[in-house]
Amino acid sequence: MTQVVIVGAGLGGLRVAESLRAAGYTEHIVLVGDEDHLPYNRPPLSKEALAGGVQVEDLHFRRKDSIDDVEWRLGSGVVASDLTARTVTLADATVLPFDALVVASGIRPRILPIPGPTKGRHLLRTADDAAGLRHEIAPGTSVVIMGAGFIGCEVAATARKLGAEVHVVALDAEPMIRPLGAELGAAMRRRHEAHGVNFHMGRTVAEFLGDDHVTGVRLDDGTEIDATVIVEAVGSVTNTEWLEGNDLDLSDGLLVDSAMVVQGADVPMVAVGDVARHPNALFGGPPRRIEHWNIPTETGRRAGAALAALLRGDEPDRSAFTAMPSFWSDQYEYKIQSFGMPGIATSSVVAAGSVDEPCVVEYHDDSGLVGVIGIDRTADLAPYRKQLAQRGA
Amino acid sequence: MIKIHVDMDKCQHYGQCCFEADDVFALDDDGKLVYQEEASDDRLADLESAVDVCPMQAITITSA
Ligand SMILES: Cc1cc2nc3c(=O)[nH]c(=O)nc-3n(C[C@H](O)[C@H](O)[C@H](O)COP(=O)(O)OP(=O)(O)OC[C@H]3O[C@@H](n4cnc5c(N)ncnc54)[C@H](O)[C@@H]3O)c2cc1C
Ligand code: SF4
């Protein structure tokens, strides 16, 4: 009996298990997750679930019947691995042998080393994080959000909806500037400002104020803001410490080929989702990690099929990987939808509407269209997506 | 025959499903999801993909 161990019981891990079964692998699968929960959907944690109350049961993904027989080991993460001995060690000291290993451990929020009290500081990655944060936000609560990326901006919108006073502090010139660019980023800032959010752009938090619990922050320019809730959304680090000591390149997640097979490993091993640095033939350039919700499903399908092939002694499908990166974000009543890689563009042009109204923005580099973003124009994006999908051809 | 149901309380009209099975799902001129409630059995693979890619997990399919 062979055994596949999947580390990380999130969306990516779930999809690999399902695609292993779809590819005909019938033997044992163990899914190890450090959270207590079965795989659940994270995007609502900064949006409707944060607004309405976090019920993780409502967020669970459907699980296909084909994986009814997998073994779930939840609540105890993998702390170490030995690719030569083909074992992983869990936090509760269990040692699991494997014939093939799946890395689906995702990422976690980065924590900046900032002096001051720690009570009142929140991260947002898990359902438990969201429940803890929800508990602290009430009408009139003063919230400082560090970071003006998508998660920071979504939390800002939700916290305003909950009646909190909201400050966003970020080093960038405009919110969500990397994917949106300066023009659309500024337009989104104006939407947030119209909803009462205070931005402190080009600034960082130098110190948390207070004795035991945070009572405020001091910015690098000396400005002080009263706040009892801090949300830290300043980027991420990959969950790969458990793979150290195996001579793998862990500098930015795990480097995989177009079949999601981990490079430099002598065992059948794949990586998927947020933690996988994968090539994409639609956009070329260096392999990248893409922290979008559709990537665990796209990479998971490939990876499960590849692993099933490797376990049969066959060559995996190494044809070009051409999944379309796609992202959405809800902030107030606005729906932002993105296809492709606007973040690598060198120029942008408003193709329809205007940035303060419903609009479509095209993103280009010397190779042509590399991305498109719509605000409240979802239905108009389909032709652009089609054009982007033809880049590989 | 496959029966298709979308929980319209959950659906946020992102249209991801339309890219998997454009003969079943579409966004109308107002950007609202419209869909066929039945499809033939040979559409199963694409419909399963649509179920998987729905960010709100709003789609259910059953064999009838
Ligand atoms: C608040 C929030 C909002 C988001 N909103 C959007 C959005 O609107 N649109 C969008 O496209 N994307 C969004 N995303 C991103 C999207 O949710 C991720 O891309 C997706 O969850 C990645 O899936 P994954 O399986 O790779 O990783 P994860 O979902 O992180 O799953 C990894 C799992 O592995 C566990 N794990 C880690 N280390 C170990 C270990 N050593 N042993 C065992 N288990 C371990 C983790 O705890 C976790 O449960 C959002 C993310 C968050 C957090
Ligand atoms: S993918 Fe889901 S949320 Fe989006 S339009 Fe289709 S059913 Fe609705």
Question: Can you tell me about this structure?
Answer:
The complex is a heterodimer of chains A (393) and B (64). Chain A has 393 residues and is an alpha/beta fold. Chain A folds into 3 domains: 3-108 and 236-312, FAD/NAD(P)-binding domain, CATH 3.50.50; 111-232, 3-Layer(bba) Sandwich (FAD/NAD(P)-binding domain), CATH 3.50.50; 333-392, Enolase-like, domain 1 (2-Layer Sandwich), CATH 3.30.390.30. Chain A has helices at residues 11-22, 48-52, 56-59, 127-136, 150-161, 177-194, 294-312, 382-389, and strands spanning 3-7, 28-33, 71-74, 78-82, 87-90, 95-97, 100-103, 107-109, 121-122, 142-146, 165-170, 198-201, 205-209, 216-219, 224-226, 229-232, 236-238, 254-255, 269-271, 276-277, 326-331, 334-340, 347-353, 359-365, 368-375. In chain A, β5 (87-90) and β6 (95-97) form a beta hairpin. In chain A, α1 packs across α7 (294-312). Chain B is α+β, with helices and mostly antiparallel strands. Chain B has one domain: Alpha-Beta Plaits, CATH 3.30.70. Chain B is 23% helix and 28% strand. Chain B has 2 helices and 5 strands, in the order βαβββαβ. At the A-B interface, β21 of A face α1 and α2 of B. Bound molecules: flavin-adenine dinucleotide and iron/sulfur cluster (SF4).
Helix and strand arrangement:
The complex is a heterodimer of chains A (393) and B (64).
Chain A (H helix, E strand, L loop, with lengths): L2 E5 L3 H12 L5 E6 L14 H5 L3 H4 L11 E4 L3 E5 L4 E4 L4 E3 L2 E4 L3 E3 L11 E2 L4 H10 L5 E5 L3 H12 L3 E6 L6 H18 L3 E4 L3 E5 L6 E4 L4 E3 L2 E4 L3 E3 L15 E2 L13 E3 L4 E2 L16 H19 L13 E6 L2 E7 L6 E7 L5 E7 L2 E8 L6 H8 L4
Parallel strand pairs in A: 1-2, 1-7, 2-3, 7-19, 9-16, 10-11, 10-16, 11-12, 18-20
Antiparallel strand pairs in A: 4-5, 5-6, 8-17, 13-14, 14-15, 21-22, 22-25, 23-24, 24-25
Helix pairs in contact in A: 1-7
Chain B lengths: L1 E5 L9 H5 L4 E3 L5 E3 L2 E2 L4 H10 L5 E5 L1
Antiparallel strand pairs in B: 1-4, 1-5, 2-3
The complex binds flavin-adenine dinucleotide (FAD) and iron/sulfur cluster.
